[in-house]
């Protein structure tokens, strides 16, 4: 075995790899960022748990119900909004809170009778976001604790004996979905997240395709024609957007045909979000082409950027499980608005008004990406 030749070949491979600084940075940065993302979500045993956002409606306004509301609001496990019942239920339906607890009229009067004399138990309705159903056992358990505490204090002041062998109330869990009738379909969120992710990957390939065409001199020849930069790049954005829209339509057609995903909200709103996201994807691809020096160097950077946007957008893990600071930070990422908008128009069953903000944000990012791309695009491949 020629050891000198072997060492030279190994050294050559190592020099080639480590001389590609962009590829090296991506190889190191990607696992660190992804690991940090999941570590921030699931914690390390020392992270302070996020407070559960809930809405509370007190329809009784008795001394006991007010004491229950005060006790729940003081619980460090909850982030409580005390509003009327209709608004609380709507907040749960929109996914703004994980549950809406409604204390019914007569709650404070029937509670002691149910505990001591076997009277009819009041029913506390807990309307919950079905995509966040894992929080329900905790909400119900803590609700029972606070009710019994408030009841015990009330009866203790009156001198009546307290027996806690059975709860003096029952809870009725209600899924907050479109029309309150259709069951939650978890495939709807999955297809929103994965559709956004893989269509963005298509945008990467479109951008890399532009770089390959530039390498072949195609863009330089087109530039020689009496065509403006805006017209040439605009046509590229239009063709990319149409491709993205067709792919999204096929993905959702399969979701509807095979997995019973439905547009329970506004069809017009769904189409508007789809078009806005298609434009975002196409402008993102053009942005990649504008900032990329070579197809090889650009692909790794673009994939990394896409993975970050997809993670923060809630495509892999629903955004409601993020820590509160990360939920707020992710609002500056366009994919968060795309996923939430598609969710709103499908299984959440929200109206067209819920599509306005996602469409506006996606279009704003599209304009920004396009402006940067037109400004930075080089017709000839940089040398060196």
List keywords for this structure.
5-stranded mixed beta sheet; 384 residues; 14 helices
The spatial strand order of the largest sheet comes to 2-1-3-4-5
End-to-end C-alpha gap: 37 Å
Portion of residues within helices:
55-70%
> Using DSSP, what is the number of strands?
5
Helix run count: 14
Shape: elongated
Rg on CA atoms, Å: 28 Å
**Pairing-aware structural class of the strands and helices?**
alpha/beta
Can you write the helix and strand succession as a string?
A: HHEHEHEHEHEHHHHHHHH
Beta content comes to 5-15%
Please state the average pLDDT score. Answer: 81
- Poorly predicted runs are none
Sheet of most strands: 5 strands, mixed
What would a concise description of this structure say?
By secondary structure, this protein is α/β, with parallel strands linked by helices. It contains 14 helices and five strands.
Give a written overview of the molecule:
The chain has a five-stranded mixed sheet, sandwiched between helices. The mean pLDDT is 81. The longest helix has 31 residues, at 229-259. β4 (123-128), α6 and β5 form a beta-alpha-beta unit. The protein is an alpha/beta fold and 384 residues long. It has helices at residues 3-19, 21-42, 63-74, 85-93, 107-116, 136-158, 186-215, 218-224, 229-259, 267-291, 295-312, 324-329, 334-345, 353-376, and strands at residues 52-58, 78-82, 99-103, 123-128, 170-175.
């Amino acid at each position: 075995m020629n050891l000198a030749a072997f060492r030279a070949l190994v050294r050559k491979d190592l020099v080639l790899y480590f001389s590609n600084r962009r590829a090296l940075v991506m190889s190191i940065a990607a696992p660190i960022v992804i690991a940090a993302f999941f570590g921030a979500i699931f914690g390390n045993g020392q992270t302070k748990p996020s407070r559960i956002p809930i809405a509370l409606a007190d329809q009784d306004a008795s001394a006991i119900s007010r004491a229950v509301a005060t006790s729940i609001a003081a619980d460090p496990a909850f982030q409580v909004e005390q509003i009327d019942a209709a608004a609380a239920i709507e907040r749960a339906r929109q996914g703004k809170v994980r549950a809406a607890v409604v204390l019914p009229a007569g709650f404070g009067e029937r509670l002691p009778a149910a505990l001591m004399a076997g009277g009819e138990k009041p029913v506390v309705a807990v309307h919950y976001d079905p995509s966040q159903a894992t929080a329900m056992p905790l909400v119900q358990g803590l609700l029972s604790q606070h009710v019994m505490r408030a009841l015990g204090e009330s009866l203790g002041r009156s001198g009546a004996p307290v027996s806690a062998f059975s709860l003096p109330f029952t809870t009725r869990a209600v899924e907050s979905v479109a029309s309150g009738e259709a069951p939650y379909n978890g495939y709807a969120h999955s297809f929103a997240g994965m559709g956004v992710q893989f269509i963005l990957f298509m945008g990467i390939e479109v951008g890399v395709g532009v770089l390959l065409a530039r390498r072949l001199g195609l863009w330089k020849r087109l530039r020689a024609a009496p065509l403006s930069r805006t017209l040439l790049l605009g046509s590229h954005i239009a063709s990319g957007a149409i491709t993205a829209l067709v792919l999204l339509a096929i993905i959702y057609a399969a979701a509807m045909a095979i997995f019973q995903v439905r547009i329970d909200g506004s069809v017009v709103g769904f189409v508007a979000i789809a078009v806005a996201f298609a434009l975002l994807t196409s402008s993102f691809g053009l942005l990649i082409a504008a900032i990329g020096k070579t197809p090889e160097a650009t692909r790794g950077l673009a994939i990394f950027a896409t993975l970050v946007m997809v993670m923060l957008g809630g495509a892999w893990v629903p955004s409601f499980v993020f820590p509160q600071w990360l939920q707020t930070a992710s609002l500056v990422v366009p994919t968060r608005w795309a996923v939430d908008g598609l969710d709103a128009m499908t299984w959440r069953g929200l109206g067209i008004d819920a599509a306005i903000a996602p469409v506006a944000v996606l279009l704003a990012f599209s304009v920004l990406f396009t402006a940067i791309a037109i400004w930075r695009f080089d017709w000839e491949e940089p040398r060196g």
